[in-house]
Design brief:
86 residues, mainly alpha, 2 domains, 3 helices, 0% strand, NADH dehydrogenase [ubiquinone] iron-sulfur protein 5, transport, mitochondrion, electron transport, respiratory chain
Length: 86
């Protein structure tokens, strides 16, 4: 990765993030000064924040689908729907 070459011979997708992080590390007083650049670089490599966000969205969609199905079932049975307030 640090060579800058991607899998197809072009510049790697995360190389610019690596350069920014590397430059920061070479001129900073403490490594903690570069924590945000490191996060950007790691996110480019692994997409962990993106996957976490997608999972949260998916879980919320599933929760809403289950709630709507439960409400429809209760209305069909003639019992009042109970809503939970969070």
């Amino acid at each position: 990765m640090a060579s800058g070459w991607g899998i197809n011979g072009n510049k790697g997708r995360c190389y610019d993030f690596w350069v920014d992080f590397s430059e920061c590390m070479s001129r900073c007083r403490q490594p903690s000064d570069c924590v945000l650049l490191r996060e950007d670089y790691m996110e480019c490599l692994h997409h962990s924040k993106e996957f976490q966000r997608r999972n949260r969205i998916y879980k919320e969609e599933q929760r809403q689908i289950r709630a709507a199905a439960r409400k429809a079932k209760e209305e069909a049975e003639g019992t009042p729907a109970v809503t939970a307030h969070h």
